[in-house]
Structures are given as C-alpha cells and as structure tokens.
C-alpha cells in the first residue's frame, strides 16, 4: 500500500494579502462579509490520499480515532456490546426522504475506518489515489505533524479556494454548473437517492478535475477538509472590541438538546453537496464538525 511520497510534498506557494471573506447570500454562518488578511503560505496541491496516509501509518504505527476502543465510562447508559470502534458511513437511499433528518442517509458502522471506509469488508486497495476519509481532527493533526506541516486556517483555505478571484459565488464563477458541466466532484441529481455524477455517490481520485488558477486540485468538492479553526455560528470579525464581549452570545454553546463538544470548521464541500440540499461547494461555505467524528466524506490537506 505504500508508494513514493511525491504527492505528499507537492505544495503550492500562495502569496498572501487581503480578501473579502464570507458571503451574505447563502447560509447564516457565512456572515458577516468582512476583510481578512493572510500572510504568504504553502498548501498541498492535493488532499492527502489513502496511499499517503498508509505510508504515515506504516512508519509510525498510528491508530486513528475510529480504530480505538470506546471508553464505556463516557457512555454509561449504552449497551457495552454497542461500544465498539467504528465510524459514520453514507448510505444512498432508495427514494426521497425528509432532508431535515440526516440519520436517513448516515449510519454507524462498526469496523469502519480509514483502511475500511465502508466497513470491515471494504478496502482501499483500488482507491489508493482517493483522498483518505474516516479521519478525525486529531488524526489529521498527527499526520500534519509527522509531515512537518500543519492544517490550514479557515481564512487560508478560503483565500486559496478562491483561486485569486474576488466576488465569485463559486470558485469558477457565479453558477454551479457552467454550460451544464460540473467543475468538481459534487452531487448531481436529487439528494440523497439519485446521483448522475461520473463518480457516483463517493470520492474521486485526487486531481480528477482541472486545477484552479493557483494550480490546486479539489479545493471544492470531493471531501470536506479539516481546518484548524474552532467553529462559531458566524464569523468572528478580527476587530470586534473586547468591551462588547459580555454583550455577545456564547457562540460555542451547544444547541438545545445537543451534547457539548468542540467543533472545528470544515471547508470545501464534498461529493454529498447538491443545490437541493447542501449548496456548500463554494469557497465561502463552511460546516461545523465535532473533533472526534470520522465519516466517509471528510478528509484534509496540509499547509505550512
């Protein structure tokens, strides 16, 4: 499963500067639009692949979060038989479902991990150049540290994903499918039961779509990607005055009924993003994800 490490060290230099971050057109957590400044940085040309991650595991014997035993003390009311390592796996439905209930297309699969993304019977043997998935935030951090890199910030990712262009809704322009042609691996059809995309309801090999004007591949679509930023339900504009702090709501508080947990920002959208459900395959789009969660549509790339 190992190969040459060329992809891992293939990075693109991004000249920093100021840019307009966020959007007022789509989802509330993309607001407010504001000016943000980033310094020069480098970012991986491709998302980290299964082959890259296999090399990391072979050299370090690292065990991902999804592969580790679950502590029964953290779930005192659960049946111990259910507390086995595993992860979330996307399951395409047979027909229309209530799009307000994500449980209709996600299922917990014991034995699912980066090495067995769909469950213990699955393999990555024919998917070595696909982005690694089923990696939690700590797994991405561990890989980045081993590689002598780090995870990009949300601002860096958005700046790079814009490809050097300001004001576009999408990385390539103002419409999702110019001339009816998809520019990224996103959901084509009615979510979550009809998919007409050439890669189906799953990941594509990295670099399957043309690069942006920075030379970066798949900054939009394919897999959501971890960033280092904590998630808040709206952008924390850098120049908010400390005097206003006590008047602001606790933006990290959990919603009613939710278990409190640390969440990070995901960027880029994935193969599950579609205009009728998740119009988030845009540079400004963002999504919250609990640090300890691994799924079949989350991966990462590194920066430095």
Sketch the topology as an H/E string, one letter per element.
Answer: EEEEHEEHHEEEE
Q: How many individual domains? A: 1
**Uncertain runs:** 1-7, 240-260
Mean pLDDT: 89
Structural class: mainly beta
Give the count of helical stretches.
3
Give the number of DSSP strands. Answer: 10
InterPro entries: CTDL_fold, Sulfatase_Mod_Factor_Kinase, SUMF_dom, SUMF_sf
Domain Sulfatase-modifying factor enzyme-like: 9-304
GO molecular function: formylglycine-generating oxidase activity
Protein name: Formylglycine-generating enzyme required for sulfatase activity
Task: Quickly list its features.
single chain, 304 residues, mainly beta, paralog of FGE (formylglycine-generating enzyme), four-stranded mixed β-sheet, two-stranded antiparallel ribbon, 3 helices, 10 strands, 15% strand, globular, disordered N terminus
Summarize this structure briefly:
Residues 9-304 form the Sulfatase-modifying factor enzyme-like domain. This protein has helices spanning 50-60, 137-146, 154-161, and strands spanning 11-14, 17-21, 34-38, 41-44, 86-90, 106-110, 224-230, 263-267, 286-290, 298-299.
What would your notes on this structure say?
This is Formylglycine-generating enzyme required for sulfatase activity. Residues 9-304 form the Sulfatase-modifying factor enzyme-like domain. It holds the Pfam family FGE-sulfatase. One of its GO terms (molecular function) is formylglycine-generating oxidase activity. By secondary structure, the chain is mainly beta. The chain has one domain: Alpha-Beta Complex (paralog of FGE (formylglycine-generating enzyme)), CATH 3.90.1580. Helix content is 10%, strand content 15%. The chain has 3 helices and 10 strands. The chain has helices at residues 50-60, 137-146, 154-161; strands spanning 11-14, 17-21, 34-38, 41-44, 86-90, 106-110, 224-230, 263-267, 286-290, 298-299. The protein is globular. 39% of the residues are buried. Residues 1-7 and 240-260 have low confidence and may be disordered.
């Amino acid at each position: 499963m190992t190969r040459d490490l060329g992809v891992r060290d293939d990075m693109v230099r991004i000249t920093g500067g100021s840019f307009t971050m966020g959007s007022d057109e789509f989802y509330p957590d993309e607001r407010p639009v504001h000016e943000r400044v980033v310094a020069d940085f480098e970012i991986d040309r491709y998302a980290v692949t299964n082959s890259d991650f296999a090399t990391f595991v072979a050299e370090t014997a690292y065990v991902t979060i999804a592969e580790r035993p679950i502590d029964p003390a953290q779930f005192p009311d659960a049946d111990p038989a259910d507390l086995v390592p595993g992860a979330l796996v996307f399951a395409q439905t047979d027909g229309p479902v209530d799009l307000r209930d994500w449980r209709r297309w996600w299922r917990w699969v014991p034995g699912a991990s980066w090495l067995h993304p769909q469950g213990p019977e699955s393999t990555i043997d024919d998917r070595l150049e696909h982005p690694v998935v089923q990696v939690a935030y700590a797994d991405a951090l561990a890989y980045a540290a081993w590689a002598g890199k780090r995870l990009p910030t949300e601002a860096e990712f958005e700046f790079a994903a814009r490809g050097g262009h300001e004001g576009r809704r999408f990385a390539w322009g103002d419409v999702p499918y110019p001339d009816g042609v998809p520019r990224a691996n996103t959901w084509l059809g009615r979510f979550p039961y009809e998919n007409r995309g050439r890669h189906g309801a799953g990941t594509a090999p990295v670099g399957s779509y043309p690069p942006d004007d920075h030379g970066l591949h798949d900054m939009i679509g394919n897999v959501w990607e971890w960033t280092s930023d904590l998630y808040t339900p709206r952008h924390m504009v850098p120049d908010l005055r400390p005097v206003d702090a006590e008047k602001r709501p606790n933006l990290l508080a959990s919603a009613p009924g939710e278990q409190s947990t640390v969440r990070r920002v995901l960027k880029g959208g994935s193969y599950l993003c579609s205009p009728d459900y998740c119009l988030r395959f845009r540079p400004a789009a963002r999504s919250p994800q609990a640090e300890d969660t691994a799924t079949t549509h989350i991966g990462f790339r590194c920066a430095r």
